[in-house]
Input
Amino acid sequence: MLQVNHSLIRFWETEFTFLKPKKNKKGDRQFTKQDIEMLQLIYSLVKEKGYTLQGAKDFIKSKAHKNDEQAEVLASLHKLRAFLTELRNGLDSQ
Output
Protein backbone atom coordinates (compact mmCIF):
# COMPACT_ATOMS: atom_id res chain seq x y z
CA MET A 1 0.00 0.00 0.00
CA LEU A 2 2.77 2.44 0.90
CA GLN A 3 5.24 0.84 -1.48
CA VAL A 4 8.04 0.64 1.11
CA ASN A 5 10.11 -2.29 2.34
CA HIS A 6 8.69 -4.44 5.10
CA SER A 7 11.81 -3.73 7.11
CA LEU A 8 10.93 -0.02 7.17
CA ILE A 9 7.48 -0.82 8.61
CA ARG A 10 9.10 -3.02 11.27
CA PHE A 11 11.58 -0.22 12.03
CA TRP A 12 8.74 2.27 12.44
CA GLU A 13 7.07 -0.16 14.86
CA THR A 14 10.13 0.07 17.11
CA GLU A 15 10.36 3.85 16.80
CA PHE A 16 6.67 4.68 17.22
CA THR A 17 5.53 2.82 20.32
CA PHE A 18 1.83 3.34 19.59
CA LEU A 19 2.14 1.07 16.54
CA LYS A 20 1.35 -2.36 17.94
CA PRO A 21 -0.08 -4.59 15.22
CA LYS A 22 -1.41 -7.92 16.36
CA LYS A 23 0.49 -10.98 15.24
CA ASN A 24 -0.91 -14.38 14.43
CA LYS A 25 0.73 -17.66 15.45
CA LYS A 26 3.03 -17.51 12.43
CA GLY A 27 4.14 -14.01 13.39
CA ASP A 28 2.40 -12.27 10.49
CA ARG A 29 1.37 -8.75 11.38
CA GLN A 30 -2.31 -7.88 11.26
CA PHE A 31 -2.77 -4.13 11.05
CA THR A 32 -6.00 -2.44 12.12
CA LYS A 33 -7.52 0.43 10.19
CA GLN A 34 -6.12 2.80 12.83
CA ASP A 35 -2.62 1.29 12.43
CA ILE A 36 -2.79 1.80 8.67
CA GLU A 37 -3.91 5.42 9.09
CA MET A 38 -0.98 6.02 11.45
CA LEU A 39 1.45 4.40 9.01
CA GLN A 40 0.12 6.63 6.24
CA LEU A 41 0.56 9.68 8.47
CA ILE A 42 4.11 8.64 9.38
CA TYR A 43 4.91 8.01 5.72
CA SER A 44 3.53 11.39 4.76
CA LEU A 45 5.48 13.21 7.45
CA VAL A 46 8.79 11.42 6.99
CA LYS A 47 8.93 10.63 3.29
CA GLU A 48 6.89 13.40 1.72
CA LYS A 49 7.30 16.35 4.07
CA GLY A 50 10.85 15.56 5.20
CA TYR A 51 10.27 15.36 8.95
CA THR A 52 12.83 13.60 11.10
CA LEU A 53 11.57 10.66 13.13
CA GLN A 54 11.63 12.78 16.28
CA GLY A 55 9.83 15.58 14.47
CA ALA A 56 7.14 13.15 13.32
CA LYS A 57 6.76 11.82 16.88
CA ASP A 58 6.40 15.36 18.22
CA PHE A 59 3.86 16.25 15.53
CA ILE A 60 1.74 13.18 16.30
CA LYS A 61 1.89 13.86 20.05
CA SER A 62 0.81 17.47 19.56
CA LYS A 63 -2.01 16.32 17.29
CA ALA A 64 -3.17 13.85 19.95
CA HIS A 65 -3.02 16.63 22.56
CA LYS A 66 -5.16 18.87 20.35
CA ASN A 67 -7.68 16.05 19.93
CA ASP A 68 -7.88 15.68 23.73
CA GLU A 69 -8.51 19.41 24.10
CA GLN A 70 -11.23 19.30 21.43
CA ALA A 71 -12.91 16.40 23.21
CA GLU A 72 -12.95 18.41 26.46
CA VAL A 73 -14.47 21.42 24.70
CA LEU A 74 -17.13 19.25 23.06
CA ALA A 75 -18.05 17.67 26.39
CA SER A 76 -18.36 21.12 27.93
CA LEU A 77 -20.57 22.30 25.05
CA HIS A 78 -22.81 19.23 25.40
CA LYS A 79 -23.28 19.99 29.11
CA LEU A 80 -24.08 23.61 28.32
CA ARG A 81 -26.60 22.58 25.67
CA ALA A 82 -28.30 20.18 28.08
CA PHE A 83 -28.51 22.93 30.69
CA LEU A 84 -29.97 25.43 28.19
CA THR A 85 -32.48 22.88 26.91
CA GLU A 86 -33.56 22.17 30.47
CA LEU A 87 -33.88 25.89 31.15
CA ARG A 88 -35.95 26.41 27.98
CA ASN A 89 -38.24 23.52 28.88
CA GLY A 90 -38.72 25.02 32.33
CA LEU A 91 -39.68 28.37 30.82
CA ASP A 92 -42.04 26.74 28.30
CA SER A 93 -43.93 24.92 31.04
CA GLN A 94 -44.69 28.14 32.96
User: Anything to note?
Assistant: The first strand starts at residue 22 and ends at 23. Helices lie at 6-15, 33-48, 53-92. The first helix runs from residue 6 to 15. The two ends are 62 Å apart (CA to CA).
